[in-house]
Amino acid sequence: MCGIIGVVGRGVVNQLIYDALLLLQHRGQDAAGIATQHDRKFFMHKAKGMVRDIFRTRNMRGLPGSSGLGQVRYPTAGNAQSEEEAQPFYVNAPFGIVLVHNGNLTNAQALKAQLYNTDHRHINTESDSEVLINVLAHELETFTRGITLTPADVFQAVSGVHQRIKGSYAVIAMIAGHGLLAFRDPYGIRPLCIGRGADGTLMVASESVALEGTGHTFVRDIAPGEAVFINLDGVLTNKQCAAAPKLNPCIFEYVYLARPDSTLDGVSVYQARLNLGESLAKRVVSVLPPTEIDVVIPIPESSRPSATQLAHLLGIPYREAFVKNRYVGRTFIMPGQSVRKKSVRQKLNVIASEFKGRNVLLVDDSIVRGTTSREIVQMARDAGARRVYLASAAPPVRYPNVYGIDMPTLQELVAHDRTVEEIRDLIGCDALIYQEVDAMIDAVKKALPKGYPEIEGFDASCFNGKYVTGDISAEVIANMNAQRLLATPEGEDSSRLALPNVMTE
Fold first, then answer.
1. Under DSSP, is residue 279 helix (H, G, I), strand (E, B) or coil?
2. DSSP states of 467-498 as a string?
3. 2 carries an active-site annotation
């Protein structure tokens, strides 16, 4: 999960890219980078940390040019500690390319071997994004005829990328002296959309909020397998470059990852979460009589729409009883589990009067490890709650995600190989209610307005174990986990999704 931006404008675009990255900061806080192009030359600044801390006035002055791209990074492959793996990545041939990527390649190790043995290209980091830029560069070199690069050449290269690469990828690249390229994997697992400014500026972004928040009008989503090429004069050309594209977006984007004010593939994220609350209300009634619940309390932040709708439908008071301290570092980037646990109470405080003597229903968007849920349930009890019930707007997370969400290993998932009752016992709540997988899918589909093409399916692999790319086996997952662990100091687990709700800005 990263946030990416690309712009072809009429004037200097560094401030525009900076502003757009701030709007996508929720998609990654480990590192950020911007690259711009001026007179065929790239200018780049990237570092670990948050956007507002990385880019100072002196850095912005060093980013001239009317086209550029940027990324906020959430590492899912490679080394989270390495500043070298901050994006954009750069290769000097052919032409000169800079690239940003959101997603995760599931065959990165095999591609590394191909790049070295067959394509004679060198990979210097553990990042799958460096693998991707080198595959793209090789394919561009293969189809380039002389010094002139046509959109047809670019689209042929993207077709070659689709044939070689497996996994999820939303990509924006700049080709020196030619223009900006954006494309999406044939399943559309990670989002990518395009918008236009009043002055003709074209922007490509991970979420529509980055377009609207910078004064651009949303035009459309880039289709699965499609490539869009914008030359330096702002002329846009597009082509479907995949043999059999099929829209299967990641359903976790709607459950948790995306901002509620974004629209992805036609679906309002906010409406999807309201719908999840509606279907969750039906599940709650099937487990608990509403008369047994005195108050509904969301666990901040992204569970709020679902909790609001659930409380409304059940006719139960809704209260904001957890107060978030926004000035504590995000818990999910803490290096060790003991630090994460300590940080829960640093990040959240309770309004005790809303708990004392009451039966409370806590609503979360999802439960991954369960350690955070257990701590929050205990916080409710310490505040005087008589009984504590917990409802999750998502089904049990039983399987790893391999498409760009750095979920823990199977053994660390609280729902793996456990019944709901066993999970309830571990978390320590009086009742545990999960959304059902089919109900979740129906709730998100229901948020698609009339007139939009129906979404063919979703990648819901972390809930149902069905991986849409069809190439994922237990052996592949084990190899990916081994690489992830090897890329961290002393083999420490680098999973970032340890505290789902509390982390959202």
1. helix
2. -TTS---HHHHHHHHHHHHHTSGGG------S
3. yes
Using the Cα atoms of residue 209, residue 215, residue 220 and residue 221 in order, give the sign of their dihedral: negative
Q: What CA–CA distance (Å, rounded) separates 84 from 82?
A: 5
Q: What class, spelled out in words, does domain 268-491 have in CATH?
A: alpha beta
The residue type at 236: L
> Which class would CATH give 3-247?
alpha beta
Q: How far apart are CA 410 and CA 418, in angstroms?
A: 11
Total length of the chain: 505
pLDDT tens digit at each of 505 positions of the chain: 799 999 999 999 999 999 999 999 999 999 999 999 999 999 999 999 999 999 999 999 999 999 999 999 986 655 556 677 899 999 999 999 999 999 999 999 999 999 999 999 999 988 999 999 999 999 999 988 777 899 999 999 999 999 999 999 999 999 999 999 999 999 999 999 999 999 999 999 999 999 999 999 999 999 999 999 999 999 999 999 999 999 999 999 999 999 999 999 999 999 999 999 999 999 999 999 999 999 999 999 899 999 999 999 999 999 999 998 877 654 443 444 444 455 677 889 999 999 999 999 999 999 998 989 999 999 999 999 999 999 999 999 999 889 988 666 788 899 999 999 999 999 999 999 999 999 999 999 999 998 888 898 999 999 999 999 998 888 878 777 766 544 444 444 333 343 333 333 3
Alpha-carbon distances of 483 from 78, 106, 134, 476, 477, rounded to whole Å: 8, 11, 20, 11, 10
Report the predicted TM-score, pTM, of the whole model to 2 decimal places: 0.91
Nearest of 292, 158, 268 to residue 218 by alpha carbon: 268
What is the C-alpha separation between 5 and 88, in angstroms, rounded? 11
Can you say whether the dihedral through the CA atoms of 308, 314, 319, 325 is positive or negative?
negative
The encoded tokens of residue 65 equal 């040019």
Residues 6+ apart with CB under 8 A from 85: 31, 73, 75, 78, 79, 125, 126, 127, 129, 130
Tokens of 306: 């679902």
| Helix runs in 288-370, H state only | 304-314, 337-347
Of 59, 56, 5, 53, the closest CA to residue 27 belongs to 5
Domain boundaries, the chain: 3-247, 268-491
- Picking from 333, 338, 308, the residue whose alpha carbon sits closest to that of residue 320 is 308
Q: What share of the chain is helix, strand, coil (3-state, %, to 5)?
A: 35, 25, 40
Nearest CA to 343 among 352, 332, 353? 332
Catalytic residue among 2, 193, 250, 429: 2
